[in-house]
Amino acid sequence: MMRPLHAKEIDHAVKECILCGRCLEVCPLVSATGREELSPKAKHTLARVLRQEPERLEGKHVAELAGLCLACGRCEKACPQGLCTPEAVADLRHAHPDLKQWLWKQWIEKGGALWPALAWLSRRLPEGRAEPSPRYDAFKTMGSGPGITPFLRVSNFPDAGLGREAVLFPGCTARRLFPAWTDRAAELLAGLGFSLPKKQPDWACCGSTLGHAGCTEAQHEAQQANLDAWRKAGRPLIVTFCATCRCGLRGYPDADLSWEPGEALRWNESVTSLAHFMADVTIESTGEPPAAVYYHKPCHGSGLAGAGADEALLARALGDRYAGTTGDVCCGMGGIMQLGAPQLSRQVADTLWTRLNPSAGSLVLTGCSGCVLQLKATAPEGVAVGHWLEAFSPQNG
Fold first, then answer.
1. Which residue, among 270, 267, 281, 268, has the nearest Cα to 309 in the 3D structure?
2. Does the keyword Iron apply (predicted)?
């Protein structure tokens, strides 16, 4: 069974849930549905009974119920024991694999061919349906492409990267569906003075979504492949523009990889967000921005040092047009839960949009690739969604 990466141990005994209920206050599924059986507390209780008295419960059915988890990680921050429900759920999924897990693994690992093909097909699907379908909406989103007219441009760069070598880690979504994000990020890094290779490393998935799905071996293979790619590139800075990728990459030192002495620390120090280096750039307007521009805070990586740099960048650039965040609300992406319970994922997204209630013509930007897909698929009519990089015009344009 997979060992939880962040489980707190005392004398080799993993701490147990103390049923305080603090996780209920932060769990997006509980907030959207009012169902306490979907809470982290309930999942830990089931996992404990299954672990201590397995004959009392049918493991597969328990795993199915406990698997209704968005893997947002909010509960870990609220838990006085520091318990991480996504990793407890990953344990259950790993111990009781099913078809959904296999399909998700294929979706991630074979996505280089699958995603572009499905994106092409999705552009030929008819608009609208008599009955809403979360899977249909998500499918249509794959082919929507960036739909934002850029309205910002960096007019002056500090020498933040002068003499430093860097590589971009775009993540699966940017590589397969939105390559323009990577192009824009490369232009910005070059402007900052970073030295970029002509060919980026041959990255695998960051492994985060594979781990949450219980695909432990696939996650380990992806992590080791990325470590090897970084070594081959000369151990440069790894610059990301996806919050989930950054969170996943910074978790590598907890994994049992072929680390050399001191290498894990150097890896973590090298993983940095693009927006972090843009704190002192001068930004000018190149067009009229939407009347209201919101920023959606990704759940993943919110507690890491440097989180929020992209929001601060947008707030400074937009001035009065910046309408604030979408609130401390999960978008409901949920990874593998898109296969198992897309209706629950949609309920969480609907909660976000109901609370925000944006007017037509508004724009929501974010710094997480998964959030972009989920928000695009669920946004009210007339509300645009994109990655914050889409707001920036090409530097040579």
1. 281
2. yes
Q: Domain-by-domain residue ranges, the chain?
A: 9-96, 153-277, 280-391
Which residues are bridge partners to 371 per DSSP? Answer: none
The answer to whether the CB of 286 falls within 8 A of the CB of 390 is no
Listed in sequence order, the DSSP H helices in the chain are 28-33, 40-52, 59-66, 74-78, 85-95, 99-109, 111-122, 134-141, 172-176, 179-191, 208-212, 216-232, 243-249, 263-270, 309-318, 337-340, 342-356, 369-378
Under 8 Å between Cβ of 168 and 196: yes
d(CA 389, CA 352): 22
Q: What is the mean pLDDT of the chain?
A: 86
Residue-level length of the chain: 397
Q: Scanning the structure block, which residue is given the tokens 């933040």?
A: 160
Read off the pTM. Answer: 0.89
